Amino acid sequence: MASLGDDWRGAIREAPDIEAAGYVLGERLGEGFFAYVVAATHVESGIEYAAKVFTAAALADESAIDAVHMELATLQAARHASVVWVHELVRTPEATYLLMERLRGGELFDRMQRGPFHEDQVRAFVRGALGREIAEMHRPAAVIRSNPALGWSSSYFR
Questions:
Q1: What is this structure's pTM?
Q2: C-alpha atoms less than 13 angstroms from C-alpha of 119 in its C-beta half-sphere
Q3: Are 44 and 22 in contact, with CB atoms under 8 Å apart?
C-alpha cells in the first residue's frame, strides 16, 4: 500500500468500522490529550502500524480538529527518517484512525529512569543523532503559528 501523499485531506478513507478497512486492533500503546494509540495490523499484508485513535466525541471540538490537521501537516512536511511515517487516515462513524509507522525500542523517558547519564554520554548524544535531527527540523522553513483570537490557523511550510 502506498503512503499518504502530500494532499492528505483528499486521502481520508471512509469505512463502516476499522475491521472493514482491513485492520485488526491490538494492545493499547499510549494515550494523549485528544487520542489514544493502539497497535494495528493490516490483515492482508500483516504489516503492523500504530493507530492513533481520535474518537468522534474528541473531534467534536473545532480546536481538536485543528490540532489533528496541524499534526498531519507537520508530519507530512517533515519527511525525514527520524519523523514517524504516516500511512493512512481512516474515518469511521465512531472514530478517526491515523495509521502510522510503528516505532519500537522504547521511549527516552524509559532510558532516563535507569539512571543518570554521564556528561560525556549526553555530549555525544546531542552532537550525534539528536543534533542532526534538530538541525534537520530547523532548516529554512516558514511556520505560521496559531492564534485563535485573530483567526489564524497553524501551518508548516517548507
A1: 0.66
A2: 0
A3: yes
